[in-house]
Amino acid sequence: MNQEKATNLPFIYVTSLFFAWGFVTSMLDPLVPLVKSVFTLSYSESMLTQFAFFLSYGVMSLPAAGIVARRGSAASIIIALLCMLLGFLIVPMATSLRAYWLVLVALFVLGSGITLLQVAANPLAAALGPPERSHLRLTLSQAFNSLGTVFGPLLGSAVMLRGGVFAGGGDVEAARTESLGNIDFSFLLLAAAIAALTFGLWKVRRHLATASLEAEPGHSPFEALRSGWALAGALGIFLYVGAEVSIASIMISFLAQPQILDISPEQAGHRLGMLYWGGAMVGRFLGSWLLSRFRAGPLLMAAALIACVLCLTVSQSAGIVAAVAALSVGLFNSIMFPTIFTLTLERSSAPAAATSGLLCVAIVGGAILPQIVGRTADVAGLSVTFLVPALAYFAIAMFAFATSRK
C-alpha cells in the first residue's frame, strides 16, 4: 500500500465518524420543543437538554486529551463510541421513570463520548495527508458532519414530533406516553447504528492505527493554556458553537410562530434540517473548494460578518424575511468550526492533542449561550434572542482578522 492509500482509507473511516456525531447532535434540536411540551417546561428549562449535552465538553475535553495522549487516536475512538452507546441506552430508562433529570444525565454521558470522539478525530482528519491541505481535509470531513446534521432533524422531527403532545385534544396522559415512546424509539435506533459503527471500526482498527496520531505520554493536556493562540481559538470555538446551537435550538419554535411562518413543529423541523443544516452542508463542500484557492482567515472573516448581519436582520423583521435570514445563517456557519480549529492548530505553541483538547473544552459554549438565549426568549421573545449570536459572530470576525495579519 502506497502512502496515499495508507492515508485515504483511514480518512474515509474517520469521516464516517463526523457524519455520525453530526447526526446525533442535531437530533437534539427536535428534542427541545418535545421535552418542553411533555415535561411542561419554560424555554430556559427545555434548553437544559443542550446545557447537559454541551457541558460535557467543558468537563471532559481535557481528560479526553489526556486519554488521546496516553492511548492514541484509534483506541480513543473505540472508547468514545462505547460511551455514546451507554448514553443512548440510559434514555429509555429515563423516559420509563418520566424523570427529566435522568434524560439530562443520559445526554451528558452521550456528550462525553462525542467529546472524546472530537478530540481524537479532528486533529486526526487534519493530519491525514499533506500539511498544506489540512484546512481542506478537515472542512471536507466537517461537510459529512453537516450531512449528518441534515438527516438528524429530519428523522428526529418525523419520529419525535409526530402525534402525541402535538396532536392536540384527547387524553393528555396518553399523548405524553406516546411522545415518550417516540423518544425511546429514536434513541434505541441510534444505539443500534452506533453499535454497528463500533463493530465496523473495531474490525478495521489496524488500518486506522497505521495513520493514528501517536500517543504522547510525556505531554500534559494543560499545556495549551500557556499558548495565546490556543486561548484565542478556544474563545472563537466557544462563541461559534454557542451561536450555532442557540439558533438551531430555537429554530423550530421560532418558525412555528404565527408572525413568522405559522407552521407545525414537524414542518419547522423539516425546514431546520433541509435549509439550516442543509445550508451548512452545502457551504462546507463549497468551502472545501474555496479553501483550496483562498486564504482561510479572510474567508472566515467574511462568513462571520455575513452571519452577524443576518442575525441582526432576524431581530428587526418578521414573516418570510425573518425566516429566510435565520435559515440562511447555516450556510455561513459552514466553514467556521474547521477553519477556526485548523488556524489555531497552526499557530498554537502547544502539542496537537493539548490544543485539540482545549478547543473541545470551548464547545461548552453550546451549553452556555443557549441558556442566555432561552432566558432572553422567556423575557423578550424569540426574535430578540438573535442579537446574542450576532455579537458572537462579530467577535469571530475579529479573531479571523487577527489571524489574517499574523
Short description:
The protein starts with a helix and ends with a helix.
Report the portion of residues in β strands. under 5%
What is the level-2 CATH architecture name? Up-down Bundle
Order of helices and strands: HHHHHHHHHHHHHHHHH
CATH-defined topology = Growth Hormone, Chain: A
Number of domains: 1
List the helices and strands and how they pair.
Blueprint: H1 3-26, H2 28-38, H3 43-46, H4 48-71, H5 73-97, H6 100-127, H7 134-160, H8 172-203, H9 205-210, H10 228-256, H11 265-291, H12 296-315, H13 319-333, H14 336-347, H15 352-361, H16 365-380, H17 387-405
Describe this structure in words.
By secondary structure, the protein is an all-alpha fold. The protein has one domain: MFS general substrate transporter like domains (Growth Hormone, Chain: A), CATH 1.20.1250. Helix content is 81%, strand content 0%. It is built from 17 helices and no strands. Helix 4 packs antiparallel against helix 15. The longest helix is centred in the middle third of the chain and has 32 residues. The radius of gyration is 20 Å and the shape is globular. The two termini are 39 Å apart. The model has no long low-confidence stretch (mean pLDDT 84).
Keywords:
globular, 406 residues, Growth Hormone, Chain: A, 17 helices, mainly alpha
